[in-house]
Amino acid sequence: MAEENPKDKSQVSGSNGVLRIKNLTKKFGSNLVLDDITLSIEKGKTTVVIGPSGCGKTVLIKHLIVLLRPTSGEVYFKKQRIDNLNEGELNKIRTHYGFLFQGGALFDSLSVAENIIFPIKQHYEITDWRQVEELIKTKLAMVGLDGFQNYYPAKLSGGQKKRVALARAIALNPEIILYDEPTTGLDPIRADIINELILKLQRELGVTTIVVTHDMVSAYKIADRIIMLHNGKIIADGDADHIRNHPHPVVQQFINGQVSEDDLAVLRMSGAISQAQFLPRDFQQ
Amino acid sequence: MNTAVGTRLAALGAKSIQDIGNAGRFGRFFWQTLVTSARSCARSRTYPLIWTQMHIIGVRSVPVIMITGAFVGMTLAVQAYDQLAGMGLEEHLGVLINISVVKELGPVLAAVMLAGRIGGALTAELGTMNVTEQIDAVRSMGTDPIWYLVAPRLLASLLLTPFLIIYADLMGIIGGYFVSVLQLGINASAYWTFSAYGVELWDLSVGVVKGFFFGGAIAVISCYKGFTCKEGAHGVGQACTEAFVASFISILALDFALAVIFKAIYNTFWPFRSLVG
Questions:
Q1: Beta-carbon separation of A91 and B136 below 8 A
Q2: Model-level pTM?
């Protein structure tokens, strides 16, 4: 285990962030996913959370909007503690957030337009439908999909679904947008479109952005700050250059996409692959 | 030996704790659903959602419910005829068929059919929404998923299951009539006369009121199983199976409990009906 870098921001997190997590621990049964995490997210900046699959990135951002409750620890939105609020109180707070889910999470039974007006209908009394149609058009134009209003999610490609989901996430003009693996499953060009959209929304709307990803190209492109999670803890925290030059071997291994020595040792084991190839004919012979 | 017994006891203890936890979670879900549904009745925004579910749960179930009812009546006629004819009581066949249909078999078999048709559909739909994070998406947009997804389904089910049972009863009566009168040759006038003597408004009411409880049980259990289903196709499939089994057992248990309660009410109050009628 390498020594922690004293320049990591999480060591010196202030209390002025728009979102703050204090000593957050999350367990599922006996499985410890997040281990005593303290973090402050700065307003108007893009924070990217990286880490290998299954390290708890999604669990972390779901705590930021309290879709999951901590086992212990506290979550703050602005100055208000929100992890102990009831669902009714949380629903008011959640209107300040937009959340782009990994698969888009569009409602299959609703058209693109109906998906986008869903959050508006829940919180406002719609009297002027022409104005709403204009709003849908504007939101879809922002993600480059104007004209897709009457399509159903089943007819959209993976990238289009994510863009519609993004249009829905910004429907209520949120202050904070959370992205869960926005580029996963997309080809590099579509992934870059999503990156450009994230940057555009951050520039034009001035929103606070938190992105969970394991796509380092995306992370370097959009991040003001990168946080790396490993074994439930933050092991690196800083800007792109800080992460590139981080001394922690796990960080270097992850950002360079290198397999660990332990994993290699398993693969190099004599006859490991041939031993794993049990086909029915082996038993017949 | 002691270790084996200890292991089994530990497994039993762990299973008991898990079952108690599940019962608690279901109890909390049930309570939240009741409270939210009661509040939803006063929110005009809920009405279009209920209307949509009434179409899916109610209107689309009519054909299968009517077929179920018709076969119940026809089968009863075929099965009971020989017994009654042996005693020279075949003209009383209408009473036996109609009271069985309206009081017991119509409501129970219609509810079982509904548990398969709408219960499976509700669990599969909500389960898929759960595993694809659509329920989390509802929450993330500041909307209560119990209000948006569960309350309309429960209210539609509560409102329409009694009507569906009336359809099943009607078709059971017609099916029984056709087999008894047209196939088995029982005198039509005697068939209806004995039926009218034997079947009271109370019997019909009991069957319809049962529908209210059966509909509520099917909707709550199916929605709960959908909300708590595990990841993947296997998880959704398993949730659908569990929802049907739990709904079926609940229907039978409720049927027994309601039979006891309604019998007590009947014995206490029905003799006084002439005082208020």
A1: no
A2: 0.84
